[in-house]
Design goal:
The chain is α+β, with helices and mostly antiparallel strands. 24% of the residues lie in helices and 31% in strands. It has one helix at residues 6-18, and strands at residues 22-29, 32-40. The radius of gyration is 20 Å and the shape is rod-shaped.
Length: 54
């Protein structure tokens, strides 16, 4: 088992706290975190279409 860098752990936790909707991908090579990717989604409420009165 590889030693985990404290900076990487702090960055992962920080990214998790910032995301409301999305994903976090942690890339590991040779037992070490080499990359952290975040994808954040913004959600908007969509109002339904108004129907014409008959």
């Amino acid at each position: 088992m590889a030693k985990i860098d404290k900076d990487a752990v702090n960055d992962i936790v920080s990214a998790l706290r910032k995301i409301e909707y999305g994903s976090l991908v942690i890339t590991v090579h040779d037992g070490e975190v080499t990359q952290i990717d975040t994808t954040e989604k913004k959600r908007y409420k969509v109002e339904g279409k108004k129907r014409k009165a008959q």
